[in-house]
Structures are given as C-alpha cells and as structure tokens.
Amino acid sequence: MVTTAQVVFGAYLLGVLLVGVYASRFTEHTPTDFYVANRSVGTVVLALTLAATVLSAFTVFGIGADTSTAGLGTFSFLAIAAVFYTLFFSTVGVALAGIGRERGILTPSEYIRERYDSPLAGTLYLGVTGVFMIALIAGQLIGGGVALEVLLDIPFRPAVLLMAVFMLVYIHIAGYRGVIWSDAIQSTVLFGVLAAVVGYVVFSLDSTTIATDAAAETERLFDIVGPADVWSPLFVITIAIAFAFGVPGYPHNIQRYFSASDPDVMRKSGFLFAVVAIPIYLFGALLGVWSVGIIPEPENVDYVIPLVVQELLNPVVFGVVMAGAIAAIMSTADSVALTMSSMLSRDVYREFVDPEASERRQVRVTQALLVALIALAVGLALVQPAGIFDLVAFAVVGFATTSAPVFLGVYWERGTATGAAASLVAGPGLTSCCFWRSSQGR
Asked: How many structural domains are present in the chain?
C-alpha cells in the first residue's frame, strides 16, 4: 500500500526535478556556467544555497537527537557557529569572490594552484579533499536511506539508488544552476515547515504543558549546560570555533564564493545566511526538547523531529517534512559531487590529459565524472564501511584541516607552495590516523 506521506514525498521530489529541468533551459555547456552559473548568482539565492549546503540532514535529524538528550545548549553552539560562518563568508568569502572574478578561477583546487603557482599543490588539495568528499556523499546517502526505510517504509537499497539517480539527473542536465535553484527551494521549505510546526505547538497546543512534561521527564533539559553537563561556555566556544574553520572551508562552499555576481553580493548573502540559518536551528532545537514531553521514549532518537510531526499533524505535513529532510541531505551531496567532478575535469583532465580540450569537452568530462563519483559513493553507501556519524565526522574534520592554505593564502603573502603542501599532508594525514586508530579501538 502506498501511503499519503509517500505520495507527498514523491510529488515533492518530482517538483524539484522539474525545477532542474527548467534550469537546464538556461544552462550553457561552458565551465563558467556549468560550475558557477556564469558568476551571476544574486544575494538571496546565494544565501539560500549556502544555508542548504551547511544545514544538511543534521537540521532535521541531528538537532532533535542532541537537544532531546543534551538540552538546549546544542542551539547555543549552533547559533554562535552560524555567526562565525557569517563572519567568514563576509570576509574570506568576499575576498575569494573578488579573486575568482579577477583571475577567472572556477574551482578551489584551481585557486590553490594559481595562488601558490604550483600544479602539485592544486592536485594535492584535490586528492586530499576528494577522500573527504566521497566519505561525505556516502554518509549522506546512508543517512537518507536509513531515514526513508525507517520512516517511510522504503527499503534501504532502493532508497539510496533513488536519491542517487535523482541527484544525477538534475545535476547532469542543469549543472550548478540546477543545484542552487533546488537548494533555494529546499531551504525555503525547510524554514517554512519547521516554523509552521513550532507555531502549531505554540498557538494550537499547550506548549507550556508539553515543556513542563519534558522538564519533568529529563531534569535540566532546558538549561544551557544541559542534563549531562556537556555545553559549558568553554566547550560551546571551542566547538563553535572548530566548526567555523571547517564549514566555510568546505570545497563546495568555496566554489559558491566564486559564483557570486560581485563581492558585495557575497557580503550581503553572508549576513542573510545567518537570518535564515539561526531560526531554523532554533526551530529544530525547540522541537527536539518538546519531543521529550510528546514522545518520551522514541524507538530511535535520531528521528524525534519527524516522529513529533507524525504524532501531531496529518500525513501530508509529515510527507513534506520527510521530503525536506531528504532534500537537505541531497543538497549537500549534490554540491559535493559537482565540486569534485568540476575539479577533476578542470584541474586534472584539462591540465594533464588534454590541455587543448574545448569548453564543451570539459563539461562533458565533468558529466561523465559525475556518474562515476556518484556510483562510487553509492557503492560505499551500500557496503557501509563505517557508520553515518563516523563518515560525516571524518569528512567535516578533514575539511577543517584543508582550510589553512585557502584562508591564509588570501591574506598572507609569504605563504609558499611548500608550506601549503606540508599543511595538506600533515593535517589530513594526522586526522586519518586518528580516525583509523579510533575505529581499531572499538
């Protein structure tokens, strides 16, 4: 039997796919257009695509799980981190937008190569971040597949394949323009649905009673430090700073800086990002702590927000929430896939295989690489060499260790290719060793 939620979920994905088809009418088969939409992205769309890429599935699944067990302190960390992201977007992002436009740079690895005048440094950046990007795509696909299996009764393997094919189609036909237009819709839907559910609890239900029941179920749930004494001020600031260096340094975020129509647009979109992201974090945190008073003992704490929606509202809203959650997963995965295939085509194929390749040929190579990369990620997702948390944590921490050559390269004129290469070997190498040792110790 096909449920109402499944129908709504399918209709939503079809709608987003049609947006990609429409975007393809405006897509030119040149690297500048296929990779960064001819550097024509305006303030609102750029802010929304940054939000969709940063928020990911954590907004619907992770925040609820954290706040329902560790308290509202999770929101304090996320809000401070979002402010730090904005500062990076409005400084380093603005500088990179100007550099990209001035020098005709389209990809992060191309920036590294040009900045340090070193093909080796650019290739090393691509190779190192490529490992983390594949891990991130696989982790997102696993998370989405598990969520669809548990909450919508769609078997895991078909769910993973469905997401992969869906992403591949609209990236293949519309490139970056299709990605950012779908991101804009997904961020708007996520904001609207979470705000509507919070509003329903506040104005149509007795939110005070729900909060009282939650506080009685878990003491100090509404304290900033939390019931487990996790979110001390020092820990909040420390983890927020760590995320502040990692998230703005994502290769797929760096490529977004190059797509801004001008540096001032990048600055404005950086501030607008906070206006969108912080309320979404707040809505997710509130639903997470309220869930303790609505569903005290959920079967899986990762799904408390969708379960609260399923408990309180009709299947149509639940289907939209699930569509928004899976769309958030895909908005990260598709951005990563496009960025990696762009770097491989432009900075490996064009540089070392066919320096005379036409612009159309570069795009065709990118499209072929998209298929290969997503197929590899699907293979990893089906094999599941590690858990969702391990794969995503490995990727996020890894990206943070690759950001130094990017950020310092903008402002530190004495930075050298040798220093950049050493940084790209030492940081990610140590990270990989630590994660390997950790996995062996389990």
From this structure: 1
Q: DSSP labels for 100-145?
A: HHHHT--SHHHHHHHHHT-HHHHHHHHHHHHHHHHHHHHHHHHHHH
pLDDT digits (tens, 9 = 90+) for 72-112: 888 998 999 999 999 999 999 999 999 999 999 999 999 99
pTM of the model: 0.91
Buried b (16+ CB within 10 A) or exposed e, 284-315: bbbbbbbbbbbbeebeebbbbbbbbbbebbee
pLDDT of 160 higher than 70: yes
Instruction: Print the domain residue range for 237.
Output: 4-441
Please give the angle made by the CA atoms of 6, 184 and 131, to the nearest 5 degrees.
Answer: 85
Pick from 87, 105, 162: nearest CA to 374: 162
**What span, in angstroms and rounded, lies between the C-alpha atoms of 50 and 270?**
8
According to the model, what pLDDT value does residue 1 have?
Answer: 65
Q: Terminal CA-to-CA distance of the chain, rounded, Å? A: 41
Q: What is the CATH number of the domain that holds 30?
A: 1.20.1730.10
Per-residue pLDDT, 180: 93
Which residue's structure tokens are 């900033």? 224
The pLDDT tens digits for 118-128 are: 998 999 999 99
What's the sign of the alpha-carbon dihedral 405, 410, 412, 415?
A: positive
